[in-house]
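[retry 2/3] Bacterial bifunctional deaminase-reductase C-terminal domain-containing protein: previous attempt timed out, resubmitting with same input.
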Amino acid sequence: MGTLVMVEFLTVDGTMQGLGSPQEDTRDGFQHGGWGAAYADSIHQVTTTSGLNATEAYLFGRNTYEKMAAFWPRQSDSNPMAAHLNTTPKYVASRTLTTASWANTRILSDQIADAVQNIKSIHNGDTVVLGSGKLARSLLADGLVDRIRLFIHPLLLGTGKRLFGALPTPRKLTLTSVAQTDLGTVALTYDVHQVKKPRECQINGGSDLVS
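[retry 2/3] Bacterial bifunctional deaminase-reductase C-terminal domain-containing protein: success.
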């Protein structure tokens, strides 16, 4: 059985919206897009190739998928991240997406909790959720996330979409690693302690993930 890993980039006050560029995500009038750019070049200080080597698949919500699909296929495979993203199996949760131009992509349109459980059984390594806040919150609530890796940037925005939301029950985490960049970004890795709950709750929660 594989591991489902959330990888998220946040400000100290928990904002995840619009990390990469000013126009990346302006929903609800968000005006601080691109806040992560100043810290991007230092992230390699707290990452290793072992993370890529352990990743056997990626899982996205529709919005994150479309932004990444518009960028990464145009990047040179001399970039290790581009090469890995472009060649590794990818899954996107969406009821409205009918075709996916990014190579090696499969669309998950219904019963997402069951589909994700199946993905974990197919891939023995890590299946990584990048960004995809709505999807990530639902998977966490459904007890499907095994590990959370947070990159917390030394910044307070006071606005924007937050990563974490309501949970059906508190979830205990075990801190397994801490690292810091020269610019003050902190990388934290937690293992998630699972809480048993009826299977029908997982299916009903999962069915509301996609858009």
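[retry 2/3] Bacterial bifunctional deaminase-reductase C-terminal domain-containing protein: Strands lie at 3-11, 55-61, 90-93, 105-108, 126-130, 147-153, 173-180, 186-192.
[retry 2/3] clearing retry counter.
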